[in-house]
Amino acid sequence: MRKVIVSASTEYAVLIGRGLLAQLGTEVAKRIRPCKAAVITDTTVEKLYAEQAEQSLAAAGFTTCRFSYPAGEGSKHIGTLSDMLEFLAEQEITRQDIIIALGGGVAGDMAGFAAAVYQRGIRFVQVPTTFLAAVDSSVGGKTAIDLRAGKNMAGAFYQPQLVLCDVDTLDTLPEEIFADGIAETLKYGVIGDAKLFAETASGDFREKLEEIIETCVKMKRDIVNEDEFDTGLRQLLNLGHTLGHSIEKNSNFTLSHGHAVAIGMHLIAKVAERRGLAEKGLAETIRQALLHNNLPTSTSYTAEEIAAGVLKDKKRRGGEISFVLPTKIGHCEIVKIPTEEVLDLVRTALA
């Protein structure tokens, strides 16, 4: 088992290994006295892992209840959050109790947000079951729901008490969902680790999943420790996300987050190259890495449609929006773009 310690406003461990779901109760009990645990999951993960998680918790002295919602980004809205909060109240969950977020990024984002606002904050544990959640969204304390205006527009910075990543759960992922995590892993490589990028781009890394996840988590740990609230360095983690979120929203979330980020990464690399900020051939290197892992690199949405979404992005500060522009594999820069130049930037990306 690998262990990474995150020292944010709450210090917690990220445990990575195989067979860890059976140890969930034991690991939680080391940190939290047995109490009532509300397991929050989606209908797909519920069938696969909810019973095992609850049995482990019960064996360690926890009593459990379960809330499940229809799987997919389409459930990540205020209605589901409201139902979740009403469920916690009906189950008489108190501030001494805990929430277990069992699933991918949607489960972690919503359960974490519920934990942040229910009774002004109760403890929660992240149990990621997708590659994307393991390498990225389960760590760092960003929680959110989507609004009609855009993705992750309402949320809170709220750190978990523990992240427990059982790598065995990734074995049941459909290839398309697994690829979402590949996109985020490639992102980490472009941001700051050329070796990680090369290993992931090759597609020949599944024997080293624990090592790959640990590498990504350590990178995020270092960034979050320095900039927990996303005011500076942490914005590097948004590589591909500003354009990607708009593309994802334009698809009405029929395009997955990882696939949208993949497109966004390639498009913003084209912009960086054409502005003379990036090494020649960088966009093509990223494009080939994505294609080799069955990820998309282009979109049919117009520049006007994408720019409209970008202008509603939460990264906007007055008359500017921060974009992360890669300069080479392993290095990126944060560049502030005036809002009146966003449409031209998107046109450059699509050209």
Can you summarize this structure?
With 351 residues, the protein is of the alpha/beta class. It is 44% helix and 22% strand.
Which characteristics define this entry?
about 350 residues, alpha/beta, Rossmann fold, Dehydroquinate synthase-like, alpha domain, 2 domains, seven-stranded mixed beta sheet, three-stranded antiparallel beta sheet, 13 helices, about 20% strand, 3-dehydroquinate synthase activity, cobalt, DHQ_synth_fam, EC 4.2.3.4, 3-dehydroquinate synthase
Structure report:
It is a single chain. This protein is an alpha/beta fold. It folds into 2 domains: 2-172, Rossmann fold (3-Layer(aba) Sandwich); 175-202 and 227-350, Dehydroquinate synthase-like - alpha domain (Dehydroquinate synthase-like, alpha domain, Up-down Bundle). Helix content is 44%, strand content 22%. The protein contains 13 helices and 12 strands. A 7-stranded mixed β-sheet has the order 1-2-9-6-5-3-4. Strand 10 (316-317) and strand 11 (320-328) form a beta hairpin. Helix 5 (131-137) packs parallel to helix 8 (209-226) and helix 10 packs antiparallel against helix 11 (282-292). The model has no long low-confidence stretch (mean pLDDT 97). It is an enzyme of class 4 (lyase).
